Amino acid sequence: MKNVKKLPTKQLEKFSTIFTQLGLVLVLFVVYIALEHETKQKSLAIYEPEVSKSIYIEPNTEVIFTKEKTVKPKSDPVKQNRLILDEDIDKVDDNKTETIIINEPKKQVVDFDINKIETVPEPVDEVDEDPVPFISIENAPIFKGCEGLSKEENKKCFDKKMLKFVQRNFNAELANDLGLRSGKYRIQTQFIIDNTGKVVDIKIRAPHIKLKEETHNLIEKLPQFTPGKQGSKSVKVRYTLPISFLVD
Fold first, then answer.
1. Domain locations in the chain?
2. What pTM, to 2 d.p., does this model score?
3. Mean pLDDT across the stretch 25-39?
4. What percent of the residues of the chain are helix, what percent strand, and what percent coil, each to the nearest 5?
5. Among 8, 12, 41, 197, whose Cα sits 20 to 30 Å from the Cα of 103?
């Protein structure tokens, strides 16, 4: 074969470096254009469903509700009055003299014939016997529920029943409404158990009119008693009931 000799202008090897550089420039230019290219953002309407207001609590999750403490206004405690009955209920000085006023009827002048004398029977005045003190009575009145006891046991049972009756029925809280000062107050009560067993002639001494009315109503609620006796005769019995109570 014949060696073909290339023309100097037709030899491309000399331009390989230039082509490489142009290729790099072209690649850099394309990369630059790609980086600087702006894409327009399109706004799209997106439908968002309503979020449920219910709260989902995962299982095994402990939920603790704390309740706020409501501060209640402090109120003054209601003061309770203590009712005290003296143990010696009927220890009263019975030797005191009492002034009794007796209104005697006026004498009437009767015209009569001296020739006719008639014997007129003298009227018999009914003797109103004085009541016997409870501590001196031979057979004391019998409170309901104390039947069949000895004389001394009957008196003790009578006092015990009277004590319970007063404690259950006397309104000791009345002193709070009356505005009484703190201290011990005493109500002196006396009444008669007549020869039929009824309570009569109630006498009360109290530090306030309302307490007097309360005590009077209390005594009127007493049941009828079996009357007291001296021997075999039913007699009136005077009973003294002192009531004491404390106002704190």
1. 82-92+129-247
2. 0.51
3. 84
4. 25, 20, 55
5. 197
